[in-house]
Amino acid sequence: MKDLTDARWIKFKGILFLAVGLLASTLLILEAPTFRVAVLLAITIWCFCRAYYFAFYVLEKYVDPGFRFSGLGSAVKFLCRRRKS
Asked: Is this prediction's pTM over 0.70?
């Protein structure tokens, strides 16, 4: 699959991710409308955002500045290879 380079499609993809995330979180809260569910969902979202930041910013800037990750799969492969050596 080739890289997405058109700015309009990149923005559309970002908006689509936001819309799907908002829809999914709304449906989860409507399924079990408790404060605990809302807090756990917020913590989950925050943790995944931090993990994504770690995978693409921290690893690239501080662990191996020469390696460019193409996705989460390549970041996981990088960490697994690094652990074995």
From this structure: no
